[in-house]
Amino acid sequence: MKYFLIFFFSLMVMLLQVPTLSAQWEPDVRLTYDDSTSHTELNNGWSITADGDTVHVVWFDNRDGNDEIYYKNSIDGGINWGTDVRLTDDPDSSYFPSIAVLGTSVHVVWIDDRDGNRELYYKRSLDGGTSWGVDTNLSNDPAWSWRPSVAVSGSYVNVVWEDWRGSYMEIYHKRSTDGGSNWETDVRLSDVLYHSCRPSVAISGNYVHVVWIDSRDLHFEIYYKRSPDNGVSWETDVRLSDLPESSNYCSVASSGNHVHVVWCDERNGNWEIYYKHSSDNGVNWDPDFRLTDDLGSSYVPSITALQSNIHVAWRDDRDGNLETYYKRSTDYGATWDSDLRLSDNDGFYSWRPSIAASGSCVHVVWIDHRDGNREIYYKRNPTGSQGIEEAEERGEMKFDILGNPVNQSVELSVPSINPACMPVNICIYDLAGRSVFRQELTAEPETVLTIPCTHLPPAVYCIRVSDSQNSWSSLFTVIR
């Protein structure tokens, strides 16, 4: 009778608490500790990226008397962080870094003044950020280069930036086909007698997707261009926004055949976040979808996509000061959850958020002024990529809990055919979303994984099994 009541109560808790697990954000974490000013990139590039449980962050700060590029990583999904690593070391300023990762290859681009004018530079790590190669000048032109964005897929590294080598700012592209060892010549993507700037790039399969803001229509609009062959050839420009008011600060993400673009515009009398979606690699586009609707200004959105899950972060002044807000969709942008305020610093400001997702975790960094100067802050949602219901419905990783409730350990039966799950990451969260167990194990087909839980007090928990592509989740109850 005792066990039945415990299990009945736990089942009720499970039914009540499942929706909150997918929206649970952990407390803010301060990443920088110095008296200087630290900056993330704008939304066109990314200041944070993740692959598996390794999270990478780049920023620039002036602790050394001039702006330099710094890097930091976490190898346990954002729980613990390593020390700051200075990536640049020259007497001139380096700023606006953008980062991309694939496995253990980490790629960083930034703008650098060391050559007497602003040039586009590149650096890479092939061991997950432990060691770094030499700096490489990618633009090498007397004109200014500015606002880079980088994306990687397989051995292809694609970089876009705005460049002043003509009479106007134009969008340029450069690629490497061997993981950053060698680079091809620059390709001019925009060619109009007006300014084109703030490009953002994403890659999915062989498709490279680029968006930027363009003034050819006598005010800024969002334009899109794609390459269907990893950056060899480029199709014609496509105008995504069509308004009498200006559109600005666009960001692009892609996953499979789906392309997602966010930006902010003034069609409603103040800056609001808008979203646009293509389900066929950019051939056709759905109508604009308004993401924010409040009396404050919402701007500079950052977007990431992982399968059907879309995550957007932006800065918002609806609360009287700048705060970081978040919104997600779990159905390719068809419907969206309500806005969620991530920072809470009355009297201070939080801005320039950058967002990334990997496996079951969503990661956000931003600039924060709560400490009297600008510092980099971080926040994560360990169950945010998909809710528990969605993870179970996918069926791509189907484990079974052998007996529930449990006492000393959780036993998982491994599917007979599941090659993508070897090895796998095992994570257990309490109902507040806090990680209480994390380990990488080998999941051989038709075996049983045993996860000890003697350290866990009686309660309901979420267990998540994931590899680099898929995940499976379920609830279980610990009794004594």
What does this structure look like?
This protein has 480 residues and is mainly beta. The protein has two domains: 2-20 and 389-478, Immunoglobulin-like, CATH 2.60.40; 25-386, Neuraminidase. It is built from two helices and 36 strands. It has helices at 2-21, 388-394; strands at residues 29-30, 38-39, 48-51, 54-61, 68-74, 85-86, 94-102, 105-112, 119-125, 136-137, 145-153, 156-163, 170-176, 187-188, 196-204, 207-214, 221-227, 238-239, 247-255, 258-265, 272-278, 289-290, 298-306, 309-316, 323-329, 340-341, 350-358, 361-368, 375-381, 400-401, 409-413, 424-429, 435-441, 448-452, 459-466, 471-478. The strands form nine sheets. Strands 2, 3, 4, 5 and 6 form a five-stranded antiparallel β-sheet that branches. A four-stranded antiparallel β-sheet has the order 1-29-28-27, with no helix packed on it. A hairpin with a 2-residue loop joins strand 27 (350-358) and strand 28 (361-368). The longest helix has 20 residues, at 2-21.
Characteristic terms for this protein:
480 residues; mainly beta; Immunoglobulin-like; Neuraminidase; five-stranded antiparallel beta sheet; four-stranded antiparallel beta sheet; 36 strands; 46% strand; globular; disordered N terminus
